[in-house]
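Worked example 3. Consider a protein that binds iron/sulfur cluster.
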Amino acid sequence: MNGNREKGMGDMVEVRLFATFREGRGKVCYLDAAKLVKASDVLEVLRIPQEEVAIYLINGRHSSMEDRVLDGDVLAVFPPVGGG
Amino acid sequence: MENGYNGRIARINLTTGEVRSEELDLELAKKFIGGRGLGTKILYDEGVATAEPLSPENKLIYITGPMTGTKSPTAGRYMVVTKSPLTGMIASSNSGGKWGGKLKYAGWDALIVEGRAEKLSYIHVEDEKIEILDAQEYAGMRSEQLDEELKKVHPECSVLNIGPAGEHQSLLAAIMNDKDRAAGRSGVGAVMGSKNLKAITVSARRTVIPAADEEALQEASRECLRLIKENGVTGGGLRTYGTAVLVNIINNTGSFPTRNWQESYYEQADDTSGETLRETYLVKNAACHRCPIGCGRVVKIGDKVVGGPEYEPLWAYGGNCGVNDLNAIDEANMWCNEYGLDAISTPCTIAAAMELYEKGCISEEECEGMPLEWGSAEAIVEWTKRMGEGRGELAKRMADGSYRLCEYYGHPEISMSVKKQEMPAYDARGIQGIGITYATSNRGGCHVRGYLISPEVLGLPEQLDRTAVEGKAQWCKIFQDLTAVIDSMGLCLFSSFALGAPNYAALLNAGTGTDYTAEELLTVGERIYNLERLFNKAAGMKPEDDRLPKRLTEEPIKNGPSEGMRSRIDVTLPQYYEVRGWENAFPTEETLRRLGLTES
Ligand code: SF4
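Given these inputs, the predicted complex is written out as structure tokens:
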């Protein structure tokens, strides 16, 4: 994983899906970065309703739907889950 | 009594065989609630802080809370409070299952066990009758089999016991109940072993605990149940995936300690995740007494069906030992339950041993045919069994935890522990607040004394920046205080993903007839937290015991999304003492006065 958002790793965005979001979508998707602007665009492509998302990480950092998505970013999307 | 309490405590002296029923001091109960709070108060007042932990002078308190056994959601918890042989400080280990509720139904709020039995014994509680019985025929028996054997003698009972690890006084020994629930931490099982006490069986005819205001309790419980059901974590996530769902979350924040915290991102983490467990070995979920959440896992190992691993052992045997074989982790976890070992500290000690082996401190010969190699599925299973049995020189040493092991080899810095107790599954370099919890926890390295992962990672009750330092000390204090309340009431900490202080106040007031506001209740939690600190002070704790291992402050994370980060405990610890009203790690006179802790 690349922690540095400025250095592009390619023109793809890696989206990792977890828990119930894997159902029907698989564990990981690669999307064309050129077609995406904001974090919320990714959810639209994957048909995940925003209100179902509890944790949205871009390169390991908690992010909002408005955050920019750049080439080479790794996204991780979780529904409400937790433990201890 | 009609206030959530039974009003009776049994004092059982194993040296003399005397069993006495004592009245519960209700004034004290109001001030310290029950469970963890009241247990600590009793232990402190009876001068146990200066006792040798494994001597007859130490006492073992099994104590319920006023909500234990009531209709409140998650009301099945009890605490084991004693002086820890692992840390030399306060131990209070919480467990669920059915045993705590049974003890309450039998008519007792707590059992205080003193002295040492001459021969291996067990205690049988049958409502008001308490007997000390011979357990010599059960010597060396593992936990699950003993549970079954004792049920043949006392049908319908609930069993609490120690396995072989407790008998040989491993400092990582847990107390097991109802087969796979554990009061796991701080070596409480060794204290039981030192008293020659193998088990406590409880049978009870009653199944209700009268509340001060039945209607109000029903109302408050209904509201809590609604909140628990509506909350995404407690209403669905925990039941479906268990706590194991955290594997992927924590790993993706780059805060998943790997190979004894040498790295913090584990490439194979998903192989050991809650999602993978669900697809492979999960049979069903399980729940403690009166719990609508049901986070427990039941898994199959070959043709055996047993209690499955929580997040902690999945991490500690998994990423922390570099192992991605889920079946082996399930099996090693099962051996922890069978031998009665702490499923956090045991695998963490194996991870420390693997680093010692890698660095050439532990030799090939010492491993007696099972090298401690990173990633070895065979090694995690075999070394767990050896530690459980106390078989071989090295295993015996490992059974006393990573601190003593690493110190023996001249490298105490390799032990990832606080106050000699192993830290759990969240790297405090990538998640700053949890480092304050680890450093200041009265029972040593522990996450459940102020679970800041909730706001820092899971966004509950609100999302904090995990890398930020400011404001974390205040959050830590509030979480520690609220947790002390929940642990003292007899409820499960996981309820707090959905509930807040006002809900707990409503439950407690209805149950016991108190009239606490949410704020006052948090002050009770603060009182308990400070009392534990006083116990530690009396036990010889020093300010430098509130420290994190050097690796967290001096070695930045080497890989993954949190690369380059280190713990800023140097900044947060003074802030924490400030918000607590402590100086040099201990409460000031003024703080003690404010909390009503000056007299006795
Ligand atoms: S949430 Fe899990 S640990 Fe807590 S009481 Fe329920 S089943 Fe037991």
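Take a moment to read the result before moving on. Chain B has a mean pLDDT of 97. Chain B touches chain A through 46 residues (CB under 8 Å).
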